[in-house]
Amino acid sequence: MKKTTSTYELLKKYDRPGPRYTSYPTAPEFRHDFTRADYIAALARAGQDVSLPLSLYVHIPFCERRCHFCGCTTVITNSRESVSRYLTTLDTELASISKHLGSRRSLMQLHWGGGTPTHLTIEEIERLFHQITDRFTILPDAEVAIEVDPRVTTAEHIEKLREIGFNRLSMGIQDFTPVVQAAIGRWQTLQQSEALYHTSRAYGFRCINMDLIYGLPKQTVADFAHTIDEVARMRPDRVALYSYAYLPAQRSNQRLINATWLPSLEDKFRLFATAVDKFVAAGYIQIGMDHFALPDDELAISLSQQRLHRNFMGYTTKPAADMIGIGMSAIGDLAACYAQNISKIGSYHTAIATDGLATYRGYRLSHDDLIRRRLITFFMCNFVMPFDLLKREFVIDYHQYFAREDSQLDQFVADGLLERRPEALAITPVGRIFIRNVAMVFDAYLNRADRPQQQTFSRTI
Q1: pTM for the full model?
Q2: Which residues face 137 on adjacent strands?
Q3: What is the C-alpha separation between 25 and 90, in angstroms, rounded?
Q4: Assigned domain for 196 exists
Q5: Which residue segment(s) compose the domain that 294 sits in?
Q6: Which of 11, 108, 191, 328 has the smallest number of Cβ neighbours within 10 A?
Q7: What confidence tens digit (pLDDT) does each residue in 364-422 have?
Q8: pLDDT tens digit string along 258-283?
Q9: Is residue 354 part of a domain?
C-alpha cells in the first residue's frame, strides 16, 4: 500500500531555497565577463530577424517611499529633476540599442515596471512613450502593460495611459489588513484600490491584474481571506499571488520587518491554500504556480492550449523571440544571451553617457541551457512536460538525455506530486505548489559546491 504523506510533512520536506525561474540559467549565474561588446553582438544577431517582433521592458525605479517588504530595485525621490535626467538617459540608451538592432523595430509586448511607473507625471509618461514610439512600432494587437500603485495613480494618469495606447495594467494590493500594512510600511485602503479599479474600467482597460502577497508579517488566514474576498468581488481579470521572499541579508529595507511576525511554514501554506480555494470557488483558473485568471482571459485560454509562456515580465500569451530591457537593472533576453544593466542609478547614468549602453554582466546560453530552459519553462507554465516537445524542437529523447534527472523524480511520484505518463510528465493538483522543487531537478547549476543557496534564493514554499 502506498504511504500517504501529510501536507505538513511535504512542506517540511520540500521547503528549501530555490529559484523562481524567471530565467534559466538564473541571474546568479550571470557573468561579469559578458561585456558591452557581447551585448552589441547579440543585438546585431537579433536584428537580423527583421520580420519578428520584439518585447521591450522599461524599468522605472522611482517611488515616494520604500515599503519594508519590497524586493525591487528602486530609487526613493520626489525630485522631478532626477526623473527628467533618467528619462534623458533612457532616450540615449534607446538610441544606442536602435542603432545596433538595425531595422528590427516592431513590438509585440511593451511593459513598464518598477518601482512605481505612475510616479511619473502625465507629461513625463507622454515623453517616455514618445521616446519609445519614435524608434519602435507597437503592433496593433500588442500587449502594452504598466504597473500602477493605487496610492499615487490618479484618474488623469489612467485617462492618459489609455489614450496613448496602454491596454493592460497591474495594481499592487498585497493585503488590505491594517495591521499587516503597518508591519510592512505600506498604507493603502480598500477604497483607494477599488476607486482606481473602477476608474480603469471606465476608461476602457479590459485586462486588469491585482498583485497579492502571502507570507507577510502579521498575516492570518481569516484576515487574508477577507482581502481575497474583496479582490474576487471586484473581479479583476487576473490575480498574481506571490510568496513573500524574506531576504534581509540582500535587502536592507527588509530588516525593518520583525522576523518573529512572519507566519510559520504551516500557516504560510494555509494562507496559500485559502487563496487557491477561494479564487477557484470564485470561478478563476489557476495559472502556473502563482497566478489566477478568469476563464475567458487569454492566460486561461492559452493554458488550455498549452501555449502559455513565462519571462522576466511574468506569464504571457504573446512571447517574442527576443526581449530588450532598458533602464537601471533591466535584463534583456536575446540571441541566446542574457544581458543585465548596472543596478545603481549613478553608475547607470555614467555608463550610458560614456558608452550608450550600461551592460555589466550577462550570460551566453549553451545548447544544453536552451534545452533545459525550454523544459523548465514549459513545465512551470503548463504543469505538463510532453516528451515529444523536446524531440520536435531539439531532436533529443527525453529518457536518454535526462536519465539521471528522471531517476530523481521518484520522490515526487511517491509523494503524489507528479505522475509519469507514457507521453509526458504531469504535475498533480497538490503538486503545483511544489513545481519549483520539481524544476530544480533539471537545473544543472544548483548542486555546485560553490553555490551559497541559502543567501541567493527565496524559499520555495
Answers
A1: 0.93
A2: 106
A3: 27
A4: yes
A5: 23-324
A6: 191
A7: 999 999 999 999 999 988 999 999 999 999 999 999 999 999 999 999 999 999 999 99
A8: 999 999 999 999 999 999 999 999 99
A9: no
